[in-house]
Amino acid sequence: EAGVxxxxxxxxxxKRQSVAFWCNPISGHATLYWxxxxxxxxxxxxxxxxxxxxxxxSQLPKDRFSAERLKGVDSTLxxxxxxxxxxAVYLCASSxxxxxxxxxxxxxxxxxxxx
Amino acid sequence: xxxxxxxxxxxxxxxxxxxxxxxxxxxxxxxxxxxxxNSGRGLVHLILxxxxxxxxxxxxxxxxxxxxxxxxxxxxxxxxxADTASYFCATTIQGAQKLVFGQGTRLTINP
Lengths: 115, 111
Known about the structure:
The complex is a heterodimer of chains A (115) and B (111). Chain A is mostly beta strands and 115 residues long. Chain A has strands at 5-7, 10-13, 19-24, 31-37, 44-50, 53-56, 65-68, 75-79, 88-95, 105-106, 110-114. Chain A is 0% helix and 48% strand.
């Protein structure tokens, strides 16, 4: 079974520029998550989709971050404009369904450096 | 703010020894999960324990949960070099569906 795919793996941009990350979840997984992981910390949930609807985006900085999952499959996370504190690894995960007992499968992440 | 706090923040042991990591959390949970993260395989789910369970085993892993103390422990027996990684506990808070991760324990297994 193919895992969660993410691209690009690495991205370096200057502050105030924009950047987009792409994620393709495991086939058949209805729930997709985007996490931000700052160096030395655990992942922090940014947004959770169930099919193409948003379940939780309470920790997404909506003034600069946006995400979509238009057809309920792959997803894009965008940052515009980027700040220095956005330097982090952005992880995408998927699970069969949203719910209390479903294991999340993580992609390799995109390491973003903002200079 | 983080829900789970792992202890210790870093642990270094000899290959073959057992490693114990602890996680404390603040609010009532539905379940608690442990994940491992290393550069080779990324973040990988290890084990899930429900709030009504006290102990669970998976291979060389043993997880305990004490809801009265709001704490969990992960024991890795007979450690191997490949166990070198960061280990995170993650909780699903009652009334919410999202997973909240702790800061992690960095485990180093010395040959």
